Amino acid sequence: MIVRNLDVAESGSRRVVSKGWESTRLLLKGDGMGFSFHITTIYAGAELEMHYQNHLESVYCIGGEGEIRDLADGKVYPIRPGTMYALDRHDKHILRAFNEMKMACVFNPPLHGKEVHNAEGAYELEAEVVQD
After folding, report:
1. Which residues is 49 bridged to in the sheet?
2. Distances from the Cα of 61 to the Cαs of 36, 52, 82, 120, in angstroms?
3. Which stretches within the chain are classed as H helix?
């Protein structure tokens, strides 16, 4: 059984901060679950173009408001608490936060721990591993 506390994880090596966001990785590849689970904060005013070429992601909005634009067809979807979206086709997208958004995120394959977005807005398959 794996039990972790968000407050404890946020104060350690599981917290990753990058431009426009921070993420606390509660489950990672090394945990052997086959997926990773994160609580991610998207900062107010952030506009992030992303394209997870190597991962599938599902996201559930816990707090805050924003929108996601599908760059394939231009459709824009509002995001607010209770909204879930899944990037089931490695969808290239822009995520905008109108105010601070708190998101629960699941990645498959799982992240190693220290990933940040590369120039294409993706996470690499190999990255620094969190040790704790």
Report:
1. 94
2. 17, 19, 6, 24
3. 6-10
Q: Determine the Cα–Cα distance for residues 30 and 25; give it in Å rounded to an integer.
A: 11
Higher per-residue pLDDT: 91 or 117: 91
Rg (CA), the chain: 14
Q: How far apart are CA 13 and CA 15, in angstroms?
A: 5
22 closest CA partner among 30, 31, 34, 10: 10
pLDDT at residue 122, as a whole number = 82
What predicted TM-score, i.e. pTM, was given to this entire model? 0.92
Retrieve residue 98's tokens.
């109108």
pLDDT for position 128 = 67
CATH fold of 16-108, please?
Answer: Jelly Rolls (2.60.120)
Task: Tell the residue number behind the tokens 């996470």, with chain if given.
Answer: 123
Is the pLDDT at 126 greater than 80? The verdict is: no
Report how far Cα 34 is from the mean position of its chain's Cα atoms.
16
| Cα 89 off chain centre by | 16
Nearest CA to 13 out of 2, 26, 31, 3 is that of 26
